[in-house]
């Protein structure tokens, strides 16, 4: 996985990347903002540049982008919440 600078939205494409990013957030004690999205979702595509701009302005947060069709196993944790997308839950890194 490529090195990511603070203030960027990190694309998560595998379960291993998902686990690594959650561990990185836990280690850094940063809040995680997860953008559950899909390539076919118009509102998701509309919000992507907005989230990228917010990520630039808030490097104290970790922004993850997960395509629900690409990495289904990552969404199991949020399965009760994930009824509609776009969905952007925030989770303290200690959980």
Automatic annotation (TrEMBL):
Stored CDD domains: TRX_family (cd02947)
Listed InterPro entries: Thioredoxin-like_sf, Thioredoxin_CS, Thioredoxin_domain, Thioredoxin_H-type-like
Ranges for domain Thioredoxin: 1-95
One Pfam family of this chain: Thioredoxin
Any coiled-coil regions, as ranges: none
PROSITE patterns membership: THIOREDOXIN_1, THIOREDOXIN_2
Alphabetical list of PANTHER family matching this protein: THIOREDOXIN (PTHR10438), THIOREDOXIN H1 (PTHR10438:SF425)
Protein name: Thioredoxin domain-containing protein
């Amino acid at each position: 996985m490529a090195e990511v600078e603070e203030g960027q939205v990190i694309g998560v494409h595998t379960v291993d990347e998902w686990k690594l990013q959650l561990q990185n957030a836990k280690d850094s004690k940063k809040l995680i903002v997860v953008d559950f999205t899909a390539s076919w979702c118009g509102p998701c595509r509309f919000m992507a540049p907005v989230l990228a701009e917010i990520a630039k302005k808030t490097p104290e947060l970790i922004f993850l982008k997960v395509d629900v069709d690409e990495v289904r196993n990552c969404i199991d944790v949020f399965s009760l919440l994930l009824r509609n997308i776009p969905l952007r839950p925030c989770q303290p890194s200690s959980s």
